[in-house]
Write a structure and sequence with these properties.
Number of helices: 12
Low-confidence stretches: 1-6
Number of strands: 10
Strand content: 15-25%
Structural class: alpha+beta
Largest sheet: 6 strands, mixed
Length: 297
């Protein structure tokens, strides 16, 4: 069993070393209430209990046998879970993910950015758990030929993908009928890819072939009333917070440059509109909270 407070640290270390890591069963509270953006692919299956998360600003309910795939760059906020909540988890490195997309999958893997979860039967869930066991055994095996281990992992991931693609075929057919949902997913993917170079709604609406006003109307049908501009602002602010948290000694000017803003002042105004405070103030609060934690320890 991997405890929730050590899971991420162990995962990050293992992923970098092996390209993939598996947690057979994770117990404990999921709740953070904080927007998170992961650089890896996260594959998760609920073993028991229930939970609620926000995925790209849309709320999802999680129950036993729900199977989800979170692709790199998308926003996750974990909001609630039951006391008995437990899940299995596989994390795939960004490098291996790119290889999977390029060389193995015969279908559009990025559809998981549109519909991140599906529900499995007990038999299907048992099969996926067996595959997780095999992936974990391969990833942790002391194989001298690292390339051989990588190829074995890629092969088993390809098999798992084909199973999931088959299991969710009815769900995918229903989803394609919803044009607002499809546009929403396409917009999210574009922002994840290009937010550093452009944060203008008109830009993304044009890429999708729509007038900005009409696109905003369609977008709100699936975003719980959130406008495209508000979505972009929240996403950029989340990225900024992640950078500030990860690099406390980095200047605001350096953060602004890293996010693609032309000037520090431009970035500060943008951050203030999205969060209600300036990045300097957020940075001070984070440093203060960190000092309090260190003092307690």
């Amino acid at each position: 069993m991997i405890q929730i407070d050590t899971t991420l640290v162990q995962f990050l270390q293992s992923v970098e070393q092996n390209g993939l890591c598996v947690a057979k069963e994770v117990h404990g509270s999921l709740v953070t209430g904080v927007d998170e953006v992961f650089p890896h692919v996260i594959i998760i299956m609920c073993m028991r209990g229930t939970a609620r998360v926000m995925f790209d600003m849309q709320e999802l309910s999680i129950e036993k046998n729900d199977f989800g795939v979170l692709l790199p760059g998308h926003v996750l906020r974990r909001t609630a879970c039951s006391e008995d909540y437990a899940y299995s988890c596989v994390i795939i490195s960004a490098d291996m993910y790119n290889e999977l997309k390029t060389h193995i999958f015969s279908h559009d893997y990025d559809k998981f950015a549109t519909v991140p979860k599906c529900h499995l039967t007990d038999v299907q869930a048992k099969r996926m758990m067996a595959l997780n066991e095999l992936l974990g055994a391969i990833a942790s095996h002391d194989v001298y030929d690292l390339q051989l281990r990588r190829q074995m992992l890629l092969s088993q991931l390809a098999v798992g993908y084909e199973f999931i693609n088959y299991y969710r075929r009815e769900q995918d057919r229903q989803w394609t009928k919803s044009r607002p949902a499809e546009l929403y997913a396409q917009f999210c993917d574009l922002v994840v890819e290009r937010y550093r170079e452009n944060r203008n709604v008109q830009y993304y609406a044009a890429l999708l072939g729509y007038d900005a006003r009409y696109f905003s109307k369609v977008f709100r049908q699936y975003s719980n009333g959130l406008s495209p501009l508000e979505w972009i602002q929240q996403y950029v602010a989340t990225q900024a917070k992640l950078i500030i948290d990860a690099h406390p000694r980095q200047t605001v000017k350096e953060t602004a440059f890293q996010l693609g803003f032309p000037t520090t002042a431009n970035f500060c105004r943008y951050f203030k509109r999205a969060t209600g405070i300036y990045p300097q103030e957020y940075k001070k609060r984070m440093n203060h909270d960190l000092q309090e934690v260190l003092a307690v320890r």
